[in-house]
Write a structure and sequence with these properties.
There is one protein chain. By secondary structure, this protein is mainly β. The chain has a domain of 152 residues: SOS response associated peptidase-like (hypothetical protein yedk fold), CATH 3.90.1680.10. Helix content is 6%, strand content 38%. It has two helices and 13 strands. The strands form two sheets. It has a five-stranded antiparallel sheet, with no helix packed on it. Strands 4-5-11-10-7 form a five-stranded mixed β-barrel.
Length: 219
């Protein structure tokens, strides 16, 4: 699964790698190295009226369909292998897909000393796009949007830390994922790296660049 991630870079430069994106919808976002569930997150989704166009939006991380009651345990992840079948997710998977930009994500390794956080990122430090699904519900005339990330079996770069990882989409395939529901299974092994980090990331109130720095250990 993915329970925390980082996005500290401005996304303006990412527009060069994307096609059919309305760049005017991208709003400045404060850098964060400890994005947690229930926070507002920048996502890329289909334009509500313009076919084949993508727009940036802000959504709450924690999936809530319009028929569901509010809960503090709203799912933040959905398994890619079963998302098309689960009643909570299947409509969103078929019609409302999105992408979540991130510098990297955290995962926790089970060790004799407890749960050890690791930070995952591209070896070339380029931006990652995690696949997701989103939903909307209305309350007293105000529309609330939310999303969940999709996860899949970890590839060779990540499975030594945890058996699951986010479904990652190459920037060149962004429109294909959102509009055509296609995913090419990227990335192969050799694209991602992971290193142990301090347990300070466990506290949602802590947010600084040092959270992603490698921890000097024997890992």
């Amino acid at each position: 699964m993915c329970g925390r991630f980082a996005l500290a870079r401005p996304l303006d430069s990412a527009l060069n790698d994307l096609v059919d994106v309305d760049g005017s919808t991208l709003q400045p976002v404060e850098a964060s190295w400890n994005i947690a569930p229930q926070q507002q997150v920048t996502v890329l989704r289909a334009h509500p009226t313009q076919a084949n166009e993508l727009v940036f939006d802000r959504m709450t991380w924690g999936f809530r369909p319009e028929w569901s009651r509010s809960s503090k345990r709203e799912p933040i992840n959905a398994r890619f292998e079963t998302v098309a079948e689960k009643p909570m997710f299947r409509e969103a998977y078929a019609t409302r897909r999105c992408l979540v930009p991130m510098d990297g994500w955290y995962e926790w390794m089970t060790t004799p000393q407890g749960q050890q956080p690791w930070y995952h990122q591209r070896l070339d430090k380029d931006l990652l796009w995690a696949a997701g699904i989103h939903a909307a519900w209305e309350n007293k005339g105000e529309v609330h949007t939310s999303f969940a990330m999709l996860t899949t079996a970890a590839n060779g770069d990540c499975k030594h830390v945890h058996h699951r990882m986010p479904v990652l989409v190459d920037a060149s395939q962004a429109s294909a994922w959102v509009h055509d529901q296609t995913w090419e299974g990227w990335p192969e092994s050799g694209v991602l790296g992971a290193h142990a980090v301090g347990r300070e990331v466990n506290r949602t109130a802590v947010d600084h660049a040092g959270l992603t720095r490698p921890l000097p250990t024997l890992f």
